[in-house]
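Quarterly update from the structural biology core.
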Amino acid sequence: MADVMRLYHTGFAVIPSPDLLRGRKNADFGQGFYLTDDVAFSRRWARQRSCEVTYLNSYELDCAGLRVKTFDRDGAWFDYIFRNRRGETDALTAYDVIVGPIANDTIYDTWGITTSGFLPREQALRLLSLGPEYRQIVIKSPAAAARLRFLGAEALTAEAIARYRETVAREERQFQAAFAALLAEMNEN
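Predicted structure, tokenized:
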């Protein structure tokens, strides 16, 4: 991983100084400020609200000297997500930054099946690992927040957001078809 990362966060505010405690404790990687290093994905994640502007915030993070935990789509990643979603104590508080795949059920609506506890761990991990792999980078500590440099914010137009959401809708249809097929295959076995 590079010492300096270019990162993006889309939302309804310009955020020069993120609040690490604002995010949900039961999110995939626990409480923190969530970003991605994929500007195209960040744009596609954009939403619209009546009478609000949607912004794409840009940052640089200097990771030199920070404790960074990187996950792949594997059992350790799944276990960390599973624990955090259940509101259990964050097992990685010693790290400043967590980097890893976004769980696709966060992006595409899959009815909470993957981390509900109703499926065996191996099946849930297979389902959670379907589809494209997008990364999230979560700033967890004040030390990391101090190394996050705000570069600016771009207001996204309603027309652009509508185009981005069409792309997500196509991806979601493909993902849900693959998800349903894999779920049916697992139920047959």
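The helical segments are 39-44, 75-85, 104-107, 121-128, 142-146, 158-188.
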